[in-house]
Structure formats: C-alpha cells, structure tokens
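Everyone, describe these structure tokens:
***
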Amino acid sequence: MKDSVSVFKEYLKSEKLKVTPERQVIIKTIFSLGKHFEADELLVKLRQRKSKIAKASIYRTLKLLVDAGILRPVIFTDRHRHYEQVIGQKHHAHLICLKLHFI
C-alpha cells in the first residue's frame, strides 16, 4: 500500500498541480498530529513551527487532501469540521465527550 505522501503527489500530478514546499509542510504536519483535527488546530501547529503558510493555503490543501481520498471531513455535535486520515486507517466509531467535546 502506498503512503499518503506518495498518493498526494500522484494526485497533484494527475490534476496538473505542483508539489509545493507549503503543501509538503502541511501534509507532514497533519500526519505528525496523529489524531482528528480542525483546520485551526493545524494552523496553530504550523505557527508553533514558525511556518508562515497562509490560512487560505491550508484550507485549499485540506480540500485537495479530501479530494485525493487521503483525509475525510467529519462533522460532530460541535458543528465544526474535523478531519481524519483515511489511508492506513481502519474504519472506526467515534466516541465524543459531550461536556468537553473531545473525540
């Protein structure tokens, strides 16, 4: 099975899009999180790593990752869009703390 980075690079190539340094940083950061995440959490993590990638670039890359079948958007009771990894993950249920909104 191919890893997510390889799948993403192939997808970008098939769509005649570039594998930019920003996209590479975003995907590596996503997989370092190792959990469900929101776009704003990703932005905070990138800022902690001194990245100056624009918020719009993050959202565009998230859409590309969803379109490529690498991420899946999930909307929970808090009405925020979370993302989870698809490749290399088994189907699983989500238990949510209704008080603290943890997944």
The chain has a mean pLDDT of 84. The longest helix spans residues 21-33. The domain at 4-85 is CATH 1.10.10.10 (Arc Repressor Mutant, subunit A).
